[in-house]
Amino acid sequence: MQQSAANHWSSVTLGLFASDETDEFQWKRFDAKTMTLEIEYNNPPDTPSDLGTSPWVPCVQGGSIGNATISVNGPSQTVIRGT
Q1: Widest pairwise Cα distance in the chain
Q2: CA–CA gap between residue 30 and residue 36 (Å, rounded)
Q3: DSSP 6-68
Q4: From the CA atom positions of the chain, what is the Rg in Å?
Q5: Among the four residues 13, 39, 56, 65, which has the most C-beta atoms within 10 Å?
Q6: What is the DSSP letter of 2?
Q7: How far apart are CA 38 and CA 50, in angstroms?
C-alpha cells in the first residue's frame, strides 16, 4: 500500500491466500457479510464515489455472487496534508 501511494498508482489489487495452497489446514473461507478490510491512513481519503462490484449484482439479490472472483471498487482521492 505504501509503495502504491508513493508512486501514485491508480489502483491496487489485494489478495488473500494461504502460504501453501495444497495444505488443507491453511484453506480459509470468508463470510462476505462479516469480513472487513482495515487500512490506516496518515491522512483520511475523501469519501469514495461510484461504489460497485464486478460482476455487478443488484442489492435486492442480497449481494450473492456465488463461486466467482469479484472486484470491489470505489474511486477516492487522498489529499496530502502537512505532517
Answers
A1: 48
A2: 10
A3: HTT-S--------S-TT-TTT-----TTT-------SSPPPPP-S-EEES---GGGTT---SS
A4: 16
A5: 65
A6: H
A7: 20
| Residue 38, pLDDT score | 78
Cell of 74: 470505489
Cβ–Cβ under 8 Å, residues 76 and 38: no
pLDDT of res. 70: 75
Say what the pLDDT of residue 59 is. 67
Residue type, 5: A
Rounded Cα distance between 77 and 48, Å, is 8
Q: What is the pLDDT of residue 73?
A: 79
* Residues 26, 19 contacting (CB under 8 angstroms): yes
Amino acid at 24: E
Region class of 50: left (phi > 0), else alpha (psi between -120 and 50), else beta: left
